[in-house]
């Protein structure tokens, strides 16, 4: 059994999932993968089941009844990992926006440098984004600046979804008290780790927008992030925020 598990939520990722999994399993360091599929209409889960015959010990699959949000997918994946003996648990997108090769760098930041949370950061050294229109780059960058200003977290890429957590971080955070299901989930997890005084590092990565499949971004997700941050910070000031 590997010490490291990569949790990958999927919804209609049939065009990406096989190539991504083969990339992860070809790395020099061993990683296991848990795919959390929201019963994708394109039958992503059937492709994963097919690949399980080849990667019998390293590829795992959870199939949910329907599309229930990114945050809940990760929480189910985290709980699955905590029920087993993984020491390092990763978040990673299925669309190749996160380079599988960077898994090793995030792993080393926690394992060799003794950080508790390692964030694959687009903004810690300038803006490292490929294939995004300028309007979206500015929206994402300003969102991270806004979150950093409101929460006072010393993190440049507060909305990043490429993260390695030490087991003890996910054991400390009450996963049943996570409020948000969209991309605000990423902010909330970092905020709770920050309030718990875990050691956090940003590892610079290059983020490449998907070339296959469709983006899951929506106006509702952005609204949740904007107002959710204010709510989190307000509650934390009056000790009403549960970690």
From TrEMBL:
Keywords carried by this UniProt record: Glycosyltransferase, Transferase
Any Pfam family the entry gives: Glycos_transf_2
Molecular function as annotated in GO: dolichyl-phosphate beta-D-mannosyltransferase activity
Lineage top rank: taxon: Bacteria
InterPro entries: DPM1-like (IPR039528), Glyco_trans_2-like (IPR001173), Nucleotide-diphossugar_trans (IPR029044)
Gene3D superfamilies in UniProt: Spore Coat Polysaccharide Biosynthesis Protein SpsA, Chain A (3.90.550.10)
Protein name per the record: Dolichyl-phosphate beta-D-mannosyltransferase
Species annotation: Planktosalinus lacus
CDD domains membership: DPM1_like
């Amino acid at each position: 059994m590997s010490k490291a598990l990569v949790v990958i939520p999927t919804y209609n990722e049939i065009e990406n999932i096989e190539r991504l999994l083969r990339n992860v399993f070809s790395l020099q360091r061993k990683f296991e993968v848990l795919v959390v599929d929201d019963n994708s209409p394109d039958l992503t889960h059937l492709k994963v089941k097919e690949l399980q015959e080849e990667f019998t010990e390293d590829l795992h699959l959870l199939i949910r009844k329907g599309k229930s949000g990114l945050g809940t997918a990760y929480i189910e994946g985290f709980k699955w990992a905590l029920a087993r003996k993984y020491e390092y648990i990763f978040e990673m997108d299925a669309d190749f926006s996160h380079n599988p090769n960077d898994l090793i760098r995030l792993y080393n930041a926690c394992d060799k440098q003794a950080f508790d949370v390692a964030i694959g950061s687009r903004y810690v050294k300038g803006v490292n984004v490929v294939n995004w229109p300028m309007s979206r780059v500015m929206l994402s960058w300003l969102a991270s600046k806004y979150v950093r200003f409101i929460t006072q977290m010393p993190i440049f890429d507060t909305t990043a979804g490429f993260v390695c957590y030490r087991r003890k971080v996910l054991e400390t955070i009450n996963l049943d008290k996570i409020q948000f299901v969209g991309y605000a989930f990423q902010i909330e997890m970092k905020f709770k780790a920050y309030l718990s005084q875990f050691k956090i590092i940003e590892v610079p990565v290059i983020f490449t927008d998907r070339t296959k499949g469709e983006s899951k971004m929506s106006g509702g997700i952005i609204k949740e992030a904007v107002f959710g941050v204010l709510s989190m910070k307000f509650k934390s000031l009056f000790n009403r925020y549960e970690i």
